[in-house]
Write a structure and sequence with these properties.
Number of helices of chain A: 13
Helix content of chain A: over 70%
Oligomer: heterodimer
Number of domains of chain A: 2
Largest sheet of chain A: none
Structural class of chain B: mainly alpha
Strand content of chain A: under 5%
Distance between the termini of chain A: 28 Å
Largest interface: A-B, 21 and 19 residues
Number of helices of chain B: 1
Distance between the termini of chain B: 51 Å
């Protein structure tokens, strides 16, 4: 059915509008929260920044899949694709930083009852840079397959653009890949360890622990996630053609999105924050804990299956 | 081979040091707030 994207290019066309349009909405909410003096509106904008940061992952990946699908077609300029990909990589980095800062702001607000001003200023600043970079990326991307927009002056990078240089650095330095694999496993251990501690408490194990004590560990899990996104993206950039052909890769990313969204629940929701020593969690909290464990287990399982499953073998 | 192992090891230790320093910094601030709030 055409409504449901099943190919990289189709998915990219669907996804690529959300980060830029969403960023305008998130920035609008963020600024409106100061006019309205509403912490709820500001919290909503921070959640939206975080969701956009997560959404940047499948958007970039589907873009690489689209590149492999259309490059070589008549009328498609490789130079424009490369310029779009380089701009997208920068947009992804800025959007990722915005998402990280927004998550930290949400965690700080929950924990300290307020968010330090430096973080809110940082969120605003990086979000604005992200929007500018996404606009630039979208503008270049629009010229890839739309001759009606007219020619775009793009300097031929001859394989020396940002993406190509990152790819060369990873594949050209012999210790880079195995070292990043080791860092990726450590990041995974940090993330899954914290996920297990938090969700098992919600499911009723170690009930004498108040949730507030475990909430303090969340930044450690978030740092593990950050390490894995960074190292994972280095792997992806270095070998994107193989990754986008792997049948296990889309499920891994889908589970990562679900697990990422579920973490928001454990970061800010009253239901779970109010759990004192000896308290039993609500049914909703237990459902969210189960979804979170299963999602991150799915990420691990499909991540490990990548070289063995479907076209990855 | 020795260089490969040493460089890979240093990279991982460096990553751990950055993560550890960030976690320590955030946790120290959390500790200060928890003490103030009597948690």
């Amino acid at each position: 059915m055409d409504l449901i994207p099943t190919t990289g290019p189709h998915l990219h066309i669907l996804l690529n509008h959300f980060p830029s349009v969403g960023m305008v909405i998130a920035l609008g909410l963020f600024l409106a929260s100061y006019c309205l003096k509403s912490e709820d509106v500001r919290r909503s904008s921070l959640v939206l920044f975080l969701l956009l940061g997560l959404l940047a992952i499948p958007t970039y990946i589907s873009g690489a899949a689209a590149k492999w699908a259309i490059q070589g077609n008549a009328g498609i300029s490789v130079d424009v694709i490369s310029a779009h990909q380089d701009a997208a990589l920068l947009a992804f980095i800025y959007l990722g930083i915005t998402g990280c800062l927004a998550w930290l702001a949400l965690w700080q607000e929950r924990r300290f009852s307020r968010t330090p001003n430096w973080n809110l200023i940082a969120v605003l600043g990086v979000a604005l840079i992200s929007l500018i970079q996404m606009t630039r990326t979208g503008n270049i991307g629009g010229h890839i397959n739309h001759p009606e927009l007219g020619a775009l002056e793009i300097a031929a990078t001859q394989g020396e653009g940002l993406t190509a240089r990152v790819e060369d650095a990873i594949t050209g330095v012999i210790w880079a890949w195995p070292a990043m694999e080791a860092a990726h496993f450590i990041g995974m251990a940090l993330l899954f360890g914290v996920v297990l501690l938090v969700t098992l408490r919600a499911l009723g194990i170690a009930k004498n622990l108040p949730f507030g004590a475990l909430h303090r560990l969340l930044p450690l899990g978030a740092l593990g996630f950050l390490v894995n996104v960074v190292t994972g993206f280095f792997f992806f950039i270095a070998d994107s053609g193989r990754y986008v052909a792997m049948d296990g890769f889309p499920p891994k990313i889908i589970f990562m999105m679900i697990g990422g969204v579920a973490i928001i629940y454990f970061t800010i929701f009253d239901d779970v924050w109010s759990l004192k020593a000896g308290d039993d969690a609500s049914v909703l909290t237990k459902v969210m804990a189960t979804v979170t464990i299963l999602s991150w287990a799915g990420v691990l399982i499909f991540g490990r299956l990548l070289p063995y499953y479907g076209d990855g073998g | 081979m020795e260089n490969l192992a040493i460089l890979a090891f240093l990279f991982v230790i460096g990553t751990l040091a950055i993560v550890g320093a960030a976690a320590y910094l955030i946790d120290t601030i959390a500790e200060r707030h928890d003490r103030r709030d009597g948690r």
